[in-house]
Amino acid sequence: MYKAHILAVDDEPLICQVISEYLERIGYFCQPVIDATNALLELKRHPYDLIIIDIIMPGRDGIWLLNQVKTHFPEIAIIMLTAIHETQIAIDCLKMGAYDYLIKPIDFDKLALSIERALKKRHLELKVKEYQAHLEEMVTERTAQLKEAHEQLKQSQIEIIHRLAMAAEFKDIGTGAHIKRMSEYSAAIAKRFGMPPHRVELILYASPMHDIGKIGIPDYILLKEGKLTPEEWEIMKQHTTIGASILSGSKFELLRLAEVIALTHHERYDGKGYPRGLKGEDIPIEGRIVALADAFDALTSKRPYKPALPIEKTIDIIKEERGRQFDPHIVDVFLDMIEEILSIKEKYKDEYFT
Prior knowledge:
Number of domains: 2
Structural class: alpha/beta
Strand order of the largest sheet: 2-1-3-4-5
Number of helices: 15
CATH class of the largest domain: Mainly Alpha
Oligomer: single chain
Shape: rod-shaped
CATH topology of the largest domain: Hypothetical protein af1432
CATH superfamily of the largest domain: Hypothetical protein af1432
Order of helices and strands: EHEHEHEHEHHHHHHHHHHH
Radius of gyration: 39 Å
Helix content: 55-70%
């Protein structure tokens, strides 16, 4: 059975010895010490459950030692002893963290009862702390598990989105390079435009689905190398509404934004775009951003039916379309960050995906 370890501190060696012998007889281990400095050294050398401190001692007194014990050994129970009964001193000791305050001459029955109660209180406090630590550990572990599960779910959703987007682009383009580049362009423009990080991330993951409606366009139109007839062009333009229909009705913010982008990325700032002929800021900002990002990548990328335009020529076209096809403010932001855009283009060139 465990014997509680008690440190008895009193500058009178006889009193210290009597206390120690009494506590040993009733089942405790007790170490006597006759001054505060050595008591503190003893606490640093060995673990104790409780300390009995005489208040009036030469040199560093019991109040000093009480403060040191509470500061450096807060889990040790403390009982104060004094030959002088002063109510204010007793109150001060209890406020500082002492469990009890006993008056000399020592009533050993009261001392034994006080020690028993102080140790029970200490035991309960330690159990509570242990339980709290266990709960905190469980919460931390569970939080980490939930965070990991959420991240895995998020990444699986993003992968599915990319694969669906690639499926829509595959016949027309053949690799995932276009959707990767244009989504990175879109996110970079949104960030430079001052959008909050959460919205930038949504654009990064929603923009790859801009052309998902091409799944519903017949191959003979989608893969035609020559110019489309007016009738074929009307069918091709339906990929915006088809994409929005595929993505509609979701409760998830990402897919709701993807629906908006799919529907509006071919609208023009001057109102001459499709499918609804929206104009200016009536076009959602995400649609205006993706319109420019998509066009830049399309112009600067090689296709089976066309060569890639030089960067300089592409920039000239974008400048010419400022305020017509493209939002002038977004064009300005885009041109101001052209080096970052070209860095993305180089990082995700077609060979990266082959």
